[in-house]
Amino acid sequence: MRTITGQGDPAVQHAFALLLVLLPLAPALVPLAVILLAVAVIRLRWISADTAWRLVPGDGSLLLMVAYYALHVVGMAWTANTAFGAFDLEVKAAFLLFPVLAVVLPMRSALDLRPLLTVFVLANAVAALLCLLLAVGAIVAERVHPDPGGDVVGISHLFESRFSRFLHPTYMAMYAVFALAIRLFGGVGRRGGPWSSAVVVLLLVAAVVLSNSKMGWITLVVLLVHGAWHFRRDRTMRRALVGGLLAGAVVFGSLFATVRPVRLKVLQAFEATQGFDPGSDRSSDLRRMTWSVGLDLLRAHPWTGVGTGDIKDELHAESARRGYVHVVDKRLNAHSQFVQSGIALGWPGLILCAALLLVPLFAAIRRQRPVAAAFLYLVLLNATVESLLEVQAGVVFLAAFAFIFHVPHAPDPVQSATHR
Question: Considering Cα of 194, then 199, then 202, then 208, what sign does the dihedral take?
Answer without folding.
Answer: negative
